[in-house]
Every structure is written in C-alpha cells, then in structure tokens.
Design a protein that fits this description.
Elements: E1 2-9, H1 13-23, E2 29-33, E3 44-47, H2 50-55, E4 63-73, E5 78-91, H3 92-106, E6 109-112, E7 114-122, E8 125-132, E9 137-148, H4 155-159, E10 167-176, E11 185-189, E12 199-203, E13 208-215, H5 218-231, E14 238-245, E15 254-257, E16 260-264, H6 280-295, H7 300-303, H8 305-321, H9 326-334, H10 338-346, H11 352-362, H12 365-374
Parallel strand pairs: 1-2, 1-9, 2-6, 4-11, 9-16
Antiparallel strand pairs: 3-5, 4-5, 7-8, 8-9, 10-13, 10-14, 11-12, 12-13, 15-16
Helix pairs in contact: 1-3, 1-6, 10-11
Length: 381
C-alpha cells in the first residue's frame, strides 16, 4: 500500500490548484484522475479578473480574449455595462494543462487512468481503493487527508455520504462572430420563454465566438439553442456541453472519518455562482480554503466563510430571478442608472457581497421588484 499525506481525486482546475498549493509547502500530494490523458474536451469560459488574484499569477496560456462591455437585452429593454477590469475569455482545457504543469513543478504527482472506487478508515488515515484502468486491478492507497475534486457527480461525495448535487446543463456552439459585433463585448439575452437563466454570445476573437444557454437538461437546451442560432442567423461549427452542479446553501462539503478529513472542492462541493452558473473562480477559492485547512490544521468551514457568503448571496439572487417574468427584466434593465452602473463597473460578479447594499441604496426599487417576484405563487416560465 502506497502512502501520501494528501490524495486528491480529480484533475479539475480546483483539484490541480489545491495540489499545487499543498505541494509547494512540501506536503506529499498525489492527484488521481480517471482519464488516461489531461485532454479535457475544449470549452470556452468567461471569468472575471478575480482569476488573477485567486491564482496569484496570470494564466496567459489559457486566455483567448478580454472583454470590456456586457450588453444585456430583455424583451423590451437594453442596457450596456462597462467593466472597470476586463473579463477574461479562457479555454478550460488550456487552464487545466497549465495548472497540471504548475502542480507537478511544485512536487505533486499526477496519476492518470486511476478511478476512485471508495475508501475506509484505516488507523491514523484513510485507505483508498483506486482501479488502475490499464491493468484492470485495484490499488490500495493510504492518505491522511482526501480531497474530492471529481465533479458534480462526485464519487468521493457519495462515498462520504454526501448526496450528489442536482445539476443544470450548459450547451454552447462555436460560431463566427457576427458582422457588426464587437470583439470586446459580451451579449446576453433574457428570454423566459426558453430559460430561467439567459442566452449569451461570448467573443473568442475578432472572428469567432460561442453562443449558448443554461437549461435544465442537455437535450432541451440543445433544441432551444439551435432555435436561437437560427433566429440570429448563426451557424454552429461545433458544440460544447457540461453538467454543472447547483449550489445549495446548507450543504456541508466535508466529513471526518476516524479523525481524518474528507474535503470536497469545486463542482464536487457545488462551489458555483447560481446567478451565472460560473464556478472557476469559486472553485479556486475553495481549493485555497482546503489547502489552508490541511496545512494549518484549520476548520474547513471557517476557511470557507467568505466564499459561502458570496455564494449564498448569488443563490438568493437566483431565487428572485427564477420568478422573474419578461416584464421584470424590462424593469430591471431600464432602472440601471449611472450610480448602479458605477457600482457594477467597480465590483465584479465574484465580489457581489461587497457591492450588494450599495446597489440596493442606488436602486431601492429593486427591493420592491425582488419582493414582488418572491411573493408570486408559482414560478414563471
């Protein structure tokens, strides 16, 4: 039986970043990934400049584009938000390969083709069962701490008696950037006929973009996206898709097993902003929290308090938005005045907790709009 101080299941961005942070402090770390190569399906993401601060470095290899404006469109209204700091359009696969390189340089070992099948308490640690997919045999690994970074349907979460999280579907199409569309501007459409979330067009460059939406299921989302593409005269050259967990405010992403810690991070912990279904920066913040908990023997729940506050707020806003009708979106966009725009310019969506009360004071009618939507008996759409 081989032994590590920390075993991380899943070579996700959160798992690799946790491995990097732990290994650079001298801890023996192994990262186990079921895939036989670090070649995840390409997927274009948009993140805030908070990515720099979360990582502590600039991931130039993963950045496709920088955008400075977001145009929001509802049925009868439109608003344009300028960003004080550009959003980053990144390619997920490139980010994962960059983080894998950083983790290995720091001393972490990445073991590919290893599928986690369970664990049990074993003296002063945990005994993990890992299936070697190439050899077809189970390997036993001992670890003092286990980190589950293995996605929305996390086997580590199930093994630790943490229920799998409900998910939503992201589907997007690679398209040519339409004539007249600016490469520094993201476009967002709210359409309650099709989705309680939104459609988007994210420029990757001066010639290419991705158009997509969030839906309840992949098939339904794909059908609606294809209709959207037809309406906007966009032709898909390929599709990208993912299942993303819903954040649940009361969940506890950790467990103790005979004195050893089992921690969940990233999608496995549901660390996702439910307003936009974005989880890259939140997952990196979760990775930092778990690294601090392990390195300094701190309480993981306390390390997560700042992130939890942020995600709880996004969860609350999503509850309100889920009950919006098209007219509510019209009112929301029409009430984006100069003061509110200024706050949105200086506070990105990964730090909404800092801007919330300022936004409420800038536009108190939003509280009325929110209360009215929450009092509706049934969801809209």
């Amino acid at each position: 039986m081989s032994e590590n101080d920390v075993a991380i299941i899943g070579a996700s961005s959160a798992g690799l970043f946790a491995g990097y942070l732990l290994a650079r402090e001298g801890l023996p770390v192994r990262i186990y990934e079921a895939s036989e190569g670090l070649n995840p399906a390409p997927r274009t993401l948009i993140v805030t400049g908070q990515l720099y601060r979360a990582l502590g470095f600039t991931p130039n290899e993963a950045i496709l584009n920088r955008v400075r404006h977001i145009e929001l469109t509802s049925r009868n209204a439109r608003a344009r938000v300028s960003l004080g700091e550009p959003d980053l359009v990144i390619e997920r696969g490139r980010l994962i390969r960059l983080l894998a390189s950083k983790a290995e340089q720091a001393g972490a070992r990445i073991e590919l083709g290893r599928r986690f099948t369970g664990f049990q308490g074993n003296g002063d640690g945990l005994a993990l069962s890992l299936l070697d997919l190439k050899k077809g045999r189970v390997e036993l690994v001992k670890a003092r701490a286990l980190v589950g970074a293995d996605g929305a349907l996390s086997p580590v979460a199930r093994a630790a008696n943490r229920d799998s999280r409900p998910t939503v579907a992201i589907v997007q199409a690679k398209v040519a950037l339409p004539p007249g569309a600016a490469a520094d501007t993201v476009q967002v459409w709210f359409d309650r006929r099709d989705t309680r979330f939104f459609y988007w067009l994210i420029p990757e460059s001066s010639t290419s973009a991705v158009a997509g939406l969030v839906g309840e299921g992949q098939e339904e989302a794909r059908q609606r996206l294809d209709r959207f593409l037809g309406e906007h005269k966009l032709e898909a050259s390929g599709y990208q898709a993912a299942q993303v967990p819903r954040y649940e405010s009361g969940s506890q992403p950790w467990a103790r097993v005979r004195g050893s810690g089992v921690f969940l991070v990233g999608d496995a912990a549901g660390q996702v902003k439910m307003t936009t279904v974005g989880g890259v920066v939140a997952g990196l913040r979760g990775a930092e929290a778990v690294a601090n908990a392990i390195l300094r023997q701190r309480d993981y729940g306390k390390e997560l308090e700042g992130l939890k506050k942020e995600l709880d707020l996004h969860h609350l806003i999503r509850r309100v938005l889920d009950r919006f009708c098209d007219t509510d979106y019209d009112v929301l966009l029409n009430s984006l005045d100069r003061r509110a725009m200024g706050l949105l310019k200086t506070h990105n969506r990964d730090e909404m907790a800092r801007a919330f009360w300022g936004l409420v004071l800038a536009q108190p009618r939003w509280l009325v709009l929110a209360a009215r939507s929450l009092l509706r008996r049934d969801r809209v759409g």
